[in-house]
Amino acid sequence: MRRVERAHPGPRPATPTLIPMKKWEYLTAPVLIHNTKMILDNFGADGWELVQIVQGATPEQLVAYFKREKP
């Protein structure tokens, strides 16, 4: 009888680590066209990230959409 050696399978693959999904909260706020930078800076200082600004009912009215990660 011939002896057959099996190849060593090597280390076992690592078990995948589950990364929890981030949870977000959202805010919609009017933005005055004449004071945009200050308003956006204030929201940014509170941890809000600007997602989008869209025009409101008139060209002078803007609506900003923000998000930040929930604690």
Structure description:
Helices cover 14% and strands 35% of the residues. It has 71 residues and is α+β, with helices and mostly antiparallel strands. The protein has a domain at 24-69. A 3-stranded antiparallel sheet has the order 1-3-2, covered by helices on one side. A hairpin with a 5-residue loop joins strand 2 (49-55) and strand 3. It is rod-shaped, with a radius of gyration of 27 Å. The N and C termini lie far apart (67 Å). The mean pLDDT is 88.
Topology:
Elements lengths: L23 E9 L3 H10 L3 E7 L5 E9 L2
Please give a quick description of this structure.
The chain is an alpha+beta fold and 71 residues long.
Order of helices and strands: EHEE
Mean pLDDT, all residues: 88
Structural class: alpha+beta
Q: Please report the number of helical segments.
A: 1
Radius of gyration based on Cα positions: 27 Å
- Apparent shape: rod-shaped
Percent of residues in β-strands? 35-45%
Number of strands: 3
> What kind of sheet is the major sheet?
3 strands, antiparallel
List unreliable stretches of 5+ residues: none
Strand numbers in spatial order across the main sheet:
1-3-2
Structural descriptors:
rod-shaped, alpha+beta, 14% helix, 71 residues
